[in-house]
């Protein structure tokens, strides 16, 4: 039977399949972990911690890192590849670690429609805030350790396991550096330098959300990512910048009914994002003063946020952000299109389309 499906439709079908299959594997992983976790017999806190990790990990998310992993392996082969399932677990456990620690840093009460791990512990221990904080930190640490152990237990050759372990630990370290730089960035006065914003996006998210899954997929499939390291890093950086810029854009110009988040959070928290840079660079006179007064005002009223949003549209800041996002996406797509000469075309098509999807998303 001739396959008449549009190439984009085939990619989207594969993406949906990855998400469904991985969610089932992730649930089974936590079932096994709960039954086999080595902990003192008296400990109630350990199984409760594993339960909170499970609940957060399975609560949602698009699993795009898992998609990247499997599509990266498809660059080399469409056959079965040993070690991919373990690498997928490792990627998402590292993400769980990051979510838990992000929510502690941001003092966030909710995540993906439910309580954060930190606030779950705060509710459990209302009179012992240090205990709640300590257990939340340790839950994130446990997720990181489990992430690395998943690679060491992978069904792959020792050389592949070692290479994947090194790639994942490097990505984790880069992410921690990115988090530090992200906090440092908000101490700037005036619009943040664009290269600072690019570097934060690269270290904080691109290296572990894009580069590491791509490297892990190629390593498992025998694709030797080291031979193309500079090109893969460039691609991941460009797509990471697009994604972070889109997040920042949606924080002010998005539809709360679609994003599930209120607008203006970054402004109220005083975060020097791409959007804040665009606003401060484009607005003048009284408009700039309105933006500056809203920045860092935790009690900034909704009507002022709406005024800042209108200033962003009127000054051209929003349009310029959309243009810059599109330019970066097109550059990344052109870079990936050049992979046809060495890798499989159907997977190359995914990497070619991904940058455009990242800037067109609405939530």
TrEMBL record:
<keyword id="KW-0479">Metal-binding</keyword>
<protein>
    <submittedName>
        <fullName>Polyprenyl synthetase</fullName>
    </submittedName>
</protein>
<dbReference type="InterPro" id="IPR000092">
    <property type="entry name" value="Polyprenyl_synt"/>
</dbReference>
<dbReference type="InterPro" id="IPR033749">
    <property type="entry name" value="Polyprenyl_synt_CS"/>
</dbReference>
<comment type="similarity">
    <text>Belongs to the FPP/GGPP synthase family.</text>
</comment>
<dbReference type="Pfam" id="PF00348">
    <property type="entry name" value="polyprenyl_synt"/>
</dbReference>
<keyword id="KW-0808">Transferase</keyword>
<keyword id="KW-0460">Magnesium</keyword>
<keyword id="KW-0414">Isoprene biosynthesis</keyword>
<dbReference type="InterPro" id="IPR008949">
    <property type="entry name" value="Isoprenoid_synthase_dom_sf"/>
</dbReference>
């Amino acid at each position: 039977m001739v396959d008449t499906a549009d190439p984009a439709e085939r990619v989207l079908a594969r993406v949906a399949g990855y998400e469904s299959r991985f969610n089932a594997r992730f649930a089974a992983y936590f079932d096994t972990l709960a039954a086999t976790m080595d902990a003192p017999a008296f400990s109630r806190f350990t199984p409760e911690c594993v339960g909170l990790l499970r609940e957060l990990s399975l609560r949602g998310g698009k699993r795009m890192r898992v998609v990247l992993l499997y599509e990266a392996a498809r660059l080399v082969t469409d056959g079965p590849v040993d070690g991919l399932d373990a690498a997928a677990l490792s990627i998402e456990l590292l993400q769980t670690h990051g979510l838990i620690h992000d929510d502690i840093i941001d003092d966030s009460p909710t995540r993906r429609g439910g309580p954060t791990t930190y606030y779950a512990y705060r509710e459990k221990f209302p009179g012992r805030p240090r205990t709640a904080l300590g257990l939340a930190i340790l839950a994130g640490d446990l997720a990181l350790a489990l992430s690395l152990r998943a690679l060491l237990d992978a069904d792959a050759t020792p050389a592949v396991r070692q290479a994947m372990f090194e790639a994942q630990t490097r990505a984790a370290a880069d992410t921690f550096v990115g988090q530090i730089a992200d906090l440092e960035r908000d101490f700037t006065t005036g619009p943040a330098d664009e290269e600072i914003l690019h570097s934060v996006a690269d270290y904080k998210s691109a290296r572990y959300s894009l580069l590491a899954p791509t490297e892990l997929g190629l390593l498992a499939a025998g694709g030797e990512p080291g031979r193309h390291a500079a090109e893969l890093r460039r691609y991941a950086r460009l797509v990471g910048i697009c994604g972070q810029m889109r997040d920042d854009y949606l924080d002010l110009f998005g539809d709360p009914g679609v994003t599930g988040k209120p607008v203006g959070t970054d402004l109220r928290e005083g975060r020097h994002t791409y959007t804040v840079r665009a606003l401060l660079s484009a607005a003048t006179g009284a408009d700039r003063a309105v933006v500056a007064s809203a920045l860092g005002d935790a009690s900034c009223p909704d009507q002022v946020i709406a005024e800042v949003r209108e200033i962003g549209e009127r000054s051209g800041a929003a349009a310029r952000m959309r243009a810059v996002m599109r330019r970066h996406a097109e550059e990344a797509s052109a870079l990936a299109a050049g992979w046809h000469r060495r890798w499989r075309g159907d997977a190359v098509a995914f990497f070619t389309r991904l940058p455009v999807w990242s800037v067109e998303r609405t939530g």
